[in-house]
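User: I'm putting together a small comparison set for a docking exercise, and I want a reference complex before I start. The sequence is below, and the ligand is iron/sulfur cluster. Could you produce the 3D structure with the ligand included, as structure tokens?
Assistant: Of course. I'll restate your input first, then give the structure tokens for the complex.
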Amino acid sequence: MRAFDFSRAESVGSAAQHGNAETAFVAGGTTLLDLVKLDVMRPAAVVDINALPLKTVERLADGRLRIGALVTNTDLAHHPEVKRDYPLLSQALLAGASTQLRNMATTAGNLMQRTRCPYFRDVGSACNKRQPGSGCDARDGINRMHALLGGSADCIAVHPSDMCVALAAIGATLTLEGPAGEREVAFADFHPLPGDTPHIEHDLAADELITALTLDAPLTLDAPLARAGSHYLKLRDRASYEFALASAAVQLNLDGERITEARLALGGVATKPWRASEAEAALVGRPAELASFERAAEIALRDARPLAHNAFKVDLAKQAIVRALRDATRAARQGGTDTQESQA
Ligand code: SF4
């Protein structure tokens, strides 16, 4: 591991002053320290931001929930207001990583998580994301875990976060702060598609920090008489601790047996947290039954571009969608209480 300068920031302003392309901010360190040890990231300086006052969760007057950037994944998953109003987010957080990692990992760190593409993490491989213009060894390599949706000739790496899949379905806004002041970015716009610049992974300048994440108001606030249900389903090679092969985050409102609102996002199959808007539109107005779910799954995956080793994920993702819709419907019928397993 290469040597780096180390300091601690006492305020967001002082942290931002340290920010530049050679500096990394560290909170939980669950991504950064791995990548520094692998020589994938080579910061000249690391700034510890754990002392910043960004660890609270507060309800805003308009019904939204504002989450400090340093709230841990464990605290967020078990927060009473998250469990009550955003069970989808709680389920997704608990499906990610291990207990030990969730105890350390933060909300902002999860948003900044980097891909698990093995070629990205091996400095002997060609990788446009790690070294722009060097090529992509995954294209003709072992690409079993790689993306079906949102890929480009330059990169097909999957976005690894479970939390972000739930956020894609819920809707959220990030608050960023730097020397120029504060600005807000819609969660949907924060992670770009790779295109021909896969090394650009987010809309965050080197001298900016994420200070908060604000969740959109729960669906039930817009339609208080509707029956709302949600479910996060993660399919992976082993249940103990693994990244998704395919996952689906679903929120539904039902009026009787008819779907009046649908949110659907996918993980494990796309280069960014993937909102399946056309599939959502196809669900609205339809009965909450298997035929509607299967049709939505077909629509969500119709633009899939399988690679040599990951074609099986097309059917896997469709099954994840159908099962998550089925379980969200069951939750809605039970008054939003989802008692089913969120992972398999
Ligand atoms: Fe790098 Fe992306 Fe190719 Fe993986 S898929 S080797 S991250 S360019």
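The chain is about 30% helix and 20% strand. The two ends are 36 Å apart (CA to CA).
User: Thanks, that's exactly what I needed.
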